[in-house]
Amino acid sequence: MSSYQFLHLSQVNGVWTIHLKRPEVFNALNAGLIHEIRDVAEKAKASESARVLVITGEGKAFCSGADLKSGVSDSDLGAVLRSTYNPMILALRGLDKPVIGAINGPAAGAGCSLALACDYLVAKEGAYFAELFVQIGLTLDAGSTAFLMQSLGYHKAFELASTAKKISAEEAQALGLVAEVISEENWEQRLKALGEEFARRPTLALALIKRELQKAHHQDLATVLEMEAEAQRQAGYSKDFQEGVSSFLEKRAPHFTGK
User: Fold this and answer.
1) For position 41, what pLDDT does the model report?
2) Which UniProt keywords apply (predicted)?
């Protein structure tokens, strides 16, 4: 199911999967693709049937970053970010469902930012990450400043940003960015299983976890404790919590509905 020009969207049993569909330019981001990614994220947020969003690329790359070959339409790059990239990243981070980044190949520049905006990353053998901005005289954008600091700390973030060093899938896993490195032959099967695993999890609890983790990075402990208490109050009234307790007591697998 897809009515988009630059990506393909499938919806199967609560798993929404985006395939970036510009393989001829290694899935480089143009205004159209950026808008479509944002649109899918917003539709997934509004949909009760969506349980998890998976983002991957067609062809050899995940995403090679901004489509520089098409030219820079506005010399005010800040305005470009505010009108295109930033709303896309905020839509993904604000999506109250888990976003899985399935990094099937190079994730470079803003493509690296797109990958890091996801909540759970897996990478195919041979994939790599690279913050290439400095090679063209630019600073980080599309959220990479925050994502690298949150995940790696100042010195490693500065190293990657200032050197444009490529990080292999295996190195990214060792750094804690990537949860799994998957072989080519197991890629499709594992992605399907992973999407189904997340779709079976309690969506409300995952949404609260996602929101708390994003806020906690900037808060003092007392504020975090109160935030956790309020989030747990909401989770405690959920049908998923009732089902979780019942399944535990009845010694059976839970059936979560995200409510």
Assistant:
1) 98
2) Isomerase, Lyase
